[in-house]
Amino acid sequence: MMKDKKYLLIPGPTPVPPRVVEAMSRPIIGHRSAEFQTVMERVTGKLKKVFQTENHVFIQGSSGTGALEAAVVNLVNTGDKVLALSCGKFGERFAELARIYGGEVDFVDFGWGYDIDLNVVKKKLEADPAIKVVFATQNETSTGIQNDIEGLGKLVAQHDAVLVVDAVSGLAAIDLKTDEWHVDVVVSGSQKAFMLPPGLAFISVSEKAWKKIEQNTTPKYYFDLLKAKKNIAKWNTTYTTPVSMVFGLEAALDMILEEGLENVFARHKLLAKATRAAIQGLGLELLAPDECASMAVTAVQAPMVVDADTLRKVLLRDYGVTFAGGQDAMKGKIFRIAHMGYADKFDVITAIAALEMALGKVGYKAELGAGVREAQMVFVGGEHA
Amino acid sequence: MMKDKKYLLIPGPTPVPPRVVEAMSRPIIGHRSAEFQTVMERVTGKLKKVFQTENHVFIQGSSGTGALEAAVVNLVNTGDKVLALSCGKFGERFAELARIYGGEVDFVDFGWGYDIDLNVVKKKLEADPAIKVVFATQNETSTGIQNDIEGLGKLVAQHDAVLVVDAVSGLAAIDLKTDEWHVDVVVSGSQKAFMLPPGLAFISVSEKAWKKIEQNTTPKYYFDLLKAKKNIAKWNTTYTTPVSMVFGLEAALDMILEEGLENVFARHKLLAKATRAAIQGLGLELLAPDECASMAVTAVQAPMVVDADTLRKVLLRDYGVTFAGGQDAMKGKIFRIAHMGYADKFDVITAIAALEMALGKVGYKAELGAGVREAQMVFVGGEHA
Questions:
Q1: Interface confidence (ipTM) of the complex
Q2: In this structure, which of A152, A219, B14, B378 has its CB flanked by the most CB atoms within 10 Å?
Q3: Domains of chain B (ranges, CATH numbers)
């Protein structure tokens, strides 16, 4: 096997398109130059289109977790009541962050493999008008579940609380109409559907959220959004921004906007559908039910004969294909195939073909080509539909 | 004039060598893969050589300011006495951070254009044994002053306090023997002498500092060093690390170590000497006295006939050359020429030649070539010495 041909199919970091790599290779310019200010203005404008918002979207040098922290330290004061809606690892992370910064957290655990139940949220909000912030995850990467953010947004909008959505792994893959759905704070990151390396995070903030941020007294510095807001007109950035990454971001945003947001979402939906059909064609169990299955990543339960991580090792060793494993309690029990960002039909075909061959090696009886055929049928149907 | 030929001579971000750009363009790999763990171990080993330490050096996705914040939130508890030694903007930033996180800050301002007076520090430390942390800046970028970190390290080592040094713009340009000089925490960033784009920060931590960090209760998450320490063996990283930047970092470290640390420092010293000789040859005033002049960046006072920022505009407009301006109170009064990182003799020659021509345009009488000749004399002498 060639040594360099590798297939990275994990839910972030994801492969970077050549056009983005090229943009990131441009000569460095000063982050306080008029030239970079123009770039930042232009990029922010494009970013707002992808966020589907008129709110300002901040660009921050950090991982997605750094942006979750920014949301928390700007909104949560010691003793504030917050509602943390969790379906997996990243829902738990939001709750942990809120707790660390003094929030009185009502942690609602819907369970790994389940989505947020809006009826529960409705009752919680009605029962306690003091709830100040509601934290939710758009696409729970750990389980391949996506939540009904539209429904959640409409619910929270009726209350004083602001809705903060972790869209790190879902934005630009799954529709999220920030303004129309009343999502006050949307957080995302560069290394998922945005097709960039890790290193940038994005945060949009609504007027309703600014009112709470203005009253916040939690100590902060690097993640201070009010300070960042004051610097928009002057520099569009508070500290030294990763300029190369911003060049790459513009190329990625151009690719997304040229394809068209609706087409980007449709492509992700098609890839998810094909992946799920293929998995079922191989007789394997999907973790997420159809109605809340992620369009960005598919979680699959390991067959009885083999541990998921053993299967992943065979895939990497013999075929150069990397799937993600399960996290925490799901470790060894599931594997996850990403189809987000710079992903197309033949990435799914590659994933399924490799999986079929690896399954054979670990003693699971699967007809070679059976999963691939199911995926092809979706593609043929999907294209003609 | 060609549109693409630009000369960036600011103290960060600095130009990135082609070898580093190439490394950063490699295909993305998973940040939790065995392959990346190997890369991180190798890179950390090389980073330790540049830090001249046996302490672990953490790699964090943020600007340098994010790493200053990491030092503060891990070391400073509410009410802790800290000594903040300041010679300019970045000394002030450290103090501000310590204040925000509840430190009882003794802010010692040596003034913009001056270095730290060790006698003052000695008296302060002797007068108050409760001082827990001493913050200092190795290379004060805002004024082009470098401090005697060796002397400071020996002083602080005699006390219970730990010494935290902001070496963001100085490390890998100016000698800093972390272990030998007893510097407990050294903070640096990617976009200065490390020759990378902005986006990574580095922090080394001594045993003496870990003892204080273990007792720290300041809320933190993204910048939590104790958590990062626990993750060294497992993944070498807590959150998603900018993998492309780490590839670039290895290439940059290889360049530094192949050249040899002593040679890297000597090169910076030579470039600084040539720049200073040229400036004086043009009859302009240097901000920093010889004995504490930075080897990484030279601050020059604007001549009476022109505001520094007007001069900088002419340099950029007519010659594509970018110098840095003065910050805060120094705005318009000084300009700064960087000679750090991927910088060699002809970057200095370019800077001075452009300056001579721009000075003529704004009405300052300078003989063309007079500064260039002074720099050349240093280079000829320097090479033969």
A1: 0.94
A2: B14
A3: 18-258 (3.40.640.10), 261-384 (3.90.1150.10)
